[in-house]
Amino acid sequence: FSVYVAGFPEYTQPMIDHLVNMKINHWDSVIRELSTKALHNLTPRAPEYMANVVLPRLLPLSVGTDLHTRHGAILACAEITHALCKLAEENNRSVTYYFNEKSLEGLKQIHQEVFCHILYLSGCQFYFLTVCTLIEKLSLSKMPFRGDPIIGGWQWLINDSLRSLPLISSTAQQHIKESAVSALAALCNEYYINEKGEADPALQDELVTRYISELQNTEEMIRCGFSLALGALPRFLLKGRLQQVLEGLRKVTLVSPADVSFAQSRRDALIAIARVCQTVGVKGEGSQEEYVCKDNVTQIYATLLSGLTDYTTDSRGDVGGWVRKAAMTSLMEVTLLLVQNEAELINANICKQIMCWLAQQSAEKIDKFRAHAGSVFLTLLHFDHPPIPHIPHREELERIFPRSEAETLNWNASSEAFPRITQLLGLPTYQYYVLLGLSVSVGGLTETTLRYSAQSLFEYMKKIQNDSSAMESFCETLLKVFEDNLRNDRVSVPLLTMLDQMLANGCFDIFIMQGNHPFSVKLFTLCKEEIKRSKDIRKLRSSIGVFCGLIQFQGDMREKVLFQLFLLLCHPFPVIRKTTASQVYEMLITYSDIVDPAIMDEVMTILSDTNW
């Protein structure tokens, strides 16, 4: 709207003056930033006035003592300069057509002047943010500073911004990180490339080596900043150093006892790996130092897939979710890059792993991560230019997730997501992974997630009740999930809760009359092993329900179950004794044939009247 109004000559100059005099020094930083963008858009309406009057007025303000005015003035100088250079380029003029020597000197000196003031003034985060934006805009403007010492000063400032991230408030860290990385990309593309399209070897060596060394810094935010900086480097700086960069980023993604809580750095490293791959491009028979090729694609995928197993939690909650989300996005970007260039680099095993892990994430309990996984899953499934090869059970998946409903399916809604994802239990390749994801959802604490995931699972179980081979396969997979996650409380505790519900809902009735059925024997053994020497109240309470449910199986199982329940009645924790007595009481009411009728009343009296 401002551009339209400024199109009338009598309004052009007054509107520019109002922005310069009243808005770029506003107390609200958002107003200041929007005002500078408006000045950028208004520059083509009055380029001479901007160059000869406004810019000379702003340059002294950009090194003044008032923080707000300084912030707005620097951003305004950056935006106006960029607009003037674009206008000159469109009219086939020199980029310096609108600038005199004094203006160019003033622009070059802003960051040095502000750095001197910063020793005495507060607001260093504004300093980093604004001057990084200035560097980006002046680089995009193609200012004639090639070979000038100012380039080294700009590079130092970008590096200092990234190293100073731990000192910045958490609310501004992301903004400054992005601003510094954008400035670095623009600076490298404009000033570090020679006429042959190559980088100076000494400069490349110094820059890449320094950035990789910072990836093992003990400060998490410094790792984040330099990971994204490596991801922003142009191709000519990565050429010949690709393996070194990928290996450095891979090490950041590893979880060790010293940096287990560094989830943000692992997230940013995974994002950077995908960006590096997109920058260097794909060439199957090429060198692994220059391209994504057959020699390094397996390692790249291994690093990205490992991010899907990050379930780190701390006082902030499921911080591993940030890593998993970044891993899913990066897997999608790299896979789409490969399939559009050299699809033969995607082998069947890699594709199977990607789709199976995404299916697991699509069945888990946290809505936003489930939604992201579902979106990536459908993007890969429905991609057509060309189709992604080796997707297991593609036809069945297309039937469960029709293209016509891909846009309308709300993965955030448990009521929509779980009825679809549970259908994948019927596909052998996906069964294990979907069941692993469902275990966490069905046995979770969120009421809506629990209700719809359990309801969808029980509906699936009803469908296969009369199919003995399908039931055998399902039970075998269920036991495998339990066995693989024994003592892994993130999975085993909700899995016990899910088993309790499944036994209570008669999901395994087909096996009840078979004496000592292998499923019940193995399940009992695993439950017993899971709670061995455990002091986890939730786990112990969930196991009581499973043991009570196993009583319905015929054979020697009953005697073993009763013995285990008697041990729990003698547990050191009063709450466990009380819960066991209550559930055994209900179990005896439900399955009255377990106890001799002659002593039934006495047993029930002991269970109900004893102060456990």
TrEMBL record:
Any one GO CC term of the record: lateral plasma membrane
Organism of provenance: Chauna torquata
Taxonomic lineage: Eukaryota, Metazoa, Chordata, Craniata, Vertebrata
Superkingdom assignment: Eukaryota
Recorded family membership: Belongs to the TBCD family.
Residue ranges occupied by any Tubulin-folding cofactor D C-terminal domain in the UniProt entry: 352-539
PANTHER family membership: BETA-TUBULIN COFACTOR D, TUBULIN-SPECIFIC CHAPERONE D
Name of the protein: Tubulin-specific chaperone D
MF term (GO), any: beta-tubulin binding
InterPro entries per UniProt: ARM-like, ARM-type_fold, TBCD, TBCD_C
Pfam families the UniProt entry points to: TFCD_C
GO biological process annotation, one example: tubulin complex assembly
